[in-house]
TrEMBL record:
<dbReference type="InterPro" id="IPR000795">
    <property type="entry name" value="T_Tr_GTP-bd_dom"/>
</dbReference>
<keyword id="KW-0342">GTP-binding</keyword>
<dbReference type="InterPro" id="IPR027417">
    <property type="entry name" value="P-loop_NTPase"/>
</dbReference>
<dbReference type="InterPro" id="IPR009000">
    <property type="entry name" value="Transl_B-barrel_sf"/>
</dbReference>
<dbReference type="InterPro" id="IPR053905">
    <property type="entry name" value="EF-G-like_DII"/>
</dbReference>
<dbReference type="Pfam" id="PF22042">
    <property type="entry name" value="EF-G_D2"/>
</dbReference>
<comment type="function">
    <text>Catalyzes the GTP-dependent ribosomal translocation step during translation elongation. During this step, the ribosome changes from the pre-translocational (PRE) to the post-translocational (POST) state as the newly formed A-site-bound peptidyl-tRNA and P-site-bound deacylated tRNA move to the P and E sites, respectively. Catalyzes the coordinated movement of the two tRNA molecules, the mRNA and conformational changes in the ribosome.</text>
</comment>
<dbReference type="InterPro" id="IPR047872">
    <property type="entry name" value="EFG_IV"/>
</dbReference>
<dbReference type="GO" id="GO:0005525">
    <property type="term" value="F:GTP binding"/>
</dbReference>
<dbReference type="Pfam" id="PF00009">
    <property type="entry name" value="GTP_EFTU"/>
</dbReference>
<dbReference type="InterPro" id="IPR035647">
    <property type="entry name" value="EFG_III/V"/>
</dbReference>
<dbReference type="InterPro" id="IPR035649">
    <property type="entry name" value="EFG_V"/>
</dbReference>
<dbReference type="GO" id="GO:0097216">
    <property type="term" value="F:guanosine tetraphosphate binding"/>
</dbReference>
<dbReference type="InterPro" id="IPR041095">
    <property type="entry name" value="EFG_II"/>
</dbReference>
<dbReference type="GO" id="GO:0003746">
    <property type="term" value="F:translation elongation factor activity"/>
</dbReference>
<dbReference type="InterPro" id="IPR014721">
    <property type="entry name" value="Ribsml_uS5_D2-typ_fold_subgr"/>
</dbReference>
<dbReference type="InterPro" id="IPR020568">
    <property type="entry name" value="Ribosomal_Su5_D2-typ_SF"/>
</dbReference>
Length: 693
């Protein structure tokens, strides 16, 4: 998402102030190609915000305005939209559907009361729909299932509804049903009987209405008794019980639409305004006051007169306009000229301009109250997940954090133009500020800048943004594995460095011993020289020479670790001895000793936790074995294993194939262990060795 270009006055409109409208907040979630962006266009058109719905193919939608999005014809970040219907303001969040962009779609759950899971009728239930339904349930959001493309030829909507109920539960009940071959929908909540000529394509309006009423009255014993005695309860009397049933997950409504033809779109708007919760009716988000174990749970008061409490769920850093913080107001009222604190910062910032977003365009507004989604620009301290407030409390307040997937797909970057190193670092920091699932790491062991993302597409889009938006060209490579070397035995060696150049010469001789230390112990340097064989002023040079050799490696070019070096003896010359001579002698003596001390190459071993389901578990464990992995256990679809990090390059693609997109994994460094002898031999053969002095 980008802010309006500088000087583009037509993109900023003035909204007249007045009494605030009731609010509904809705996030469109689900797999790619489910039609979320097309549905958003249809809703904007039906709400009178645009004259005609834009086209993804033509790059004319309000949501997908980024040039890369238009070219790829997929949403890559969450767009914030708004419209009005029946004197209700509706905030729509159109989220990306690829799992690679969960860093953009998951934060939308923090800004809404209702998660609308959009399902593509021809393809049915997909992993991303299941994943987002689980995430919405974890955040205790009301959930709505929207079945899109109901007019697609050959689609079996009755079977799809049965599949939805099998996966998500019998509480998934239709509020309307498709009719006339998916060219329209008929209401099942407010109208208990279908009008003649508008019968449902499957089931019946009466049966669907009866199932809905029976599901809703179950939460109230008095209503159950009335229903059993009277045979029905009017839908208007069930508004509060319906809200309670949705809050508790006892009812997950299902609606049918075709974003392409508009069938069911007006009905969906009515569902949003008449049945979905307003900010005071949904489950309140969990805020925590304080830090660590002392943190106390608190909930915002949906009160425009209270202290301001708002949460930043999206940050955009435009190369021309600067940082834009998009936030949801949970409590109080933000106005122009408000003084707000960012988190526990003691210095407030002044709200100079307050915006409501419509894709790339912004509407300047006078105030934003509870439930509103708004934005402020050019506030450098604002960051993702920040809490904005107008009272400098002693205890910091933050929202219960989301559980983001761990980015494990790495790519090493090197600027193509000389002198662009600092520029690359700055740009990567901006991209990381926008995306919680983009991790940038400066690896001192390999001297690389490595970016970790959720997949190949995630990193490919990042590279395109570097090139197109920020004009930074980079070369890429897989991250180098941080191998190590160590010794498994004890050995001694000595080296005399003697150099005569006509004037003052160089002389130094070092006798030393290397011993192995326990894994992770590091390095010990011990001086047991007696009688001044090596004068004390030269011992730092001896240690420096050893450390230089350790950093460069001895057999494969990787740093040496977990060794003790004991300096046993040596010789010096009263005239020719210099620091450089003892540095060289110590370095060469150390190399010779290590080569005789049964050296081994160590590789990082990752602790991997793979989440999968069904028959694919056997395939996964077999694949891990082929990667020199050691399976430690499987429990309820979770596989835990130890695998060499070098064997996990490109593993996400392999896991995706083994699980048909249902698998995910996390990893963490466990320990270092020796590589197999055949691998070590190949590494030793490939290394160029030490350059001659």
């Amino acid at each position: 998402m980008s802010s309006p270009a500088p000087g583009n006055a037509s993109s900023v409109a003035k909204l007249p102030s007045g009494s605030p409208l009731p609010i509904r907040n809705l996030a469109l979630l689900g797999p790619a190609a489910a039609g979320k962006t097309s549905l958003a266009e249809a809703l904007l058109q039906a709400g009178g915000m645009i004259g005609a719905a834009g086209s993804i193919e033509h790059g004319s939608t309000v949501s997908d305005f980024d040039p890369i999005e238009r070219r790829m014809q997929h949403s890559l970040s969450t767009s914030v939209l708004h419209l009005e219907h029946r004197q209700v303001r509706i905030h729509l969040l159109d989220t990306p559907g690829s799992p690679d962009f969960l860093g953009h779609s998951l934060p939308a759950l923090e800004a809404v009361e209702t998660a609308a899971i959009v399902i593509n009728a021809p393809t049915g239930l997909e992993p991303m729909a299941v994943r987002m339904m689980e995430q919405a349930a974890r955040r205790r959001l009301d959930r709505l299932i929207v079945v899109n493309h109901i007019d697609a030829p050959g689609v079996d909507l009755a079977a799809l509804l049965a599949g939805i109920q099998e996966v998500f539960g019998r509480e998934c009940l239709p509020l309307n049903l498709p009719a006339n071959g998916g060219r329209e929908v008929v209401d099942c909540w407010f109208a208990p009987e279908a009008e003649p000529g508008h019968e449902a394509d499957f089931s019946s309006v009466a049966a669907a209405h009866r199932a809905l009423v029976e599901q809703v009255v179950e939460i109230d014993a008095d209503l159950v008794e009335r229903y059993l005695n009277d045979g029905d309860v009017q839908a208007d009397e069930l508004h509060a019980p319906l809200e309670q049933a949705m809050r508790e997950g006892h009812l997950i409504p299902v609606v049918f639409v075709s974003a392409r033809t508009g069938a069911g779109v007006a009905a969906l708007l009515d569902v949003i305004t008449r049945l979905l919760p307003d900010p005071g009716e949904g489950n309140p988000p969990d805020f925590l006051r304080g830090e660590g174990e002392a943190a106390r749970l608190m909930h915002a008061a949906v009160d425009p007169a209270a202290h301001v409490l708002a949460h930043v769920f999206k940050v955009v850093i435009d190369p021309y306009v600067g940082r834009l913080g998009v936030f949801r107001v949970h409590q109080g009222t933000v106005t122009r000229d408000s003084l707000l604190h960012v988190g526990d910062g003691r210095k407030p910032f002044k709200v100079g301009h307050l915006f409501r977003l419509q894709g790339k365009d912004v509407v300047e507004i006078a105030q934003a109250g509870p439930g509103d989604i708004a934005a402020v620009a050019k506030i450098d301290d604002i960051h993702h997940d920040a809490v904005l407030h107008d009272a400098a409390e002693d205890d910091p307040i933050h929202l219960q954090p989301l559980q983001f997937p761990m980015p494990v797909h790495g790519l090493a970057l090197r600027p193509r133009r000389h002198g662009d190193d600092q520029r690359l670092t700055e740009v990567l920091a901006r991209l990381g500020a926008e995306d919680p699932c983009l991790r940038i790491e400066q690896v001192p062991d390999t001297h690389e800048t490595v970016v970790y993302g959720l997949g190949e597409l995630h990193l490919r889009v990042m590279l395109e943004r570097l090139r197109e938006t920020y004009r930074v060209e980079v070369d890429t490579a897989p991250p180098r594995i941080a191998y190590r070397e160590t010794v498994t035995g004890t050995a001694q060696a000595q080296y005399r460095h003697k150099k005569q150049t006509g004037g003052a010469g160089q002389f130094g001789e070092v006798h030393l011993q290397v011993d192995p230390l326990p894994r992770g112990a590091g390095f010990e340097f011990v001086d047991v020289v007696k009688g001044g064989a090596i004068p004390g002023q030269y011992m730092p040079a001896v240690e420096k020479g050893v450390r230089l050799a350790m950093a460069q490696g001895v057999i494969s070019g990787h740093p040496v670790v977990d060794v003790r070096v004991t300096v046993l003896d040596g010789k010096h010359h009263s005239v020719d001895s210099k620091e450089i001579a003892f540095i060289t002698a110590a370095r060469k003596a150390f190399i010779a000793a290590v080569r005789e001390a049964r050296p081994v190459v160590l590789e990082p071993i990752a602790e991997v936790e793979i989440t999968a389901a069904g028959p694919g578990i056997g395939d996964i464990t077999g694949d891990l074995a082929s990667r020199r992995g050691e399976v430690r256990g499987t429990d309820q679809g979770v596989i835990r294993a130890l695998v060499p990090l070098s064997e996990l390059t490109g593993y996400q693609i392999r896991l995706h194939a083994l699980t048909r997109g249902h698998g995910s994994y996390r990893l963490a460094l466990s320990h270092y262990d020796a590589v197999p002898a055949t691998v070590q031999a190949e590494m030793v053969k490939r290394w160029d060795g030490h350059p001659e002095d």
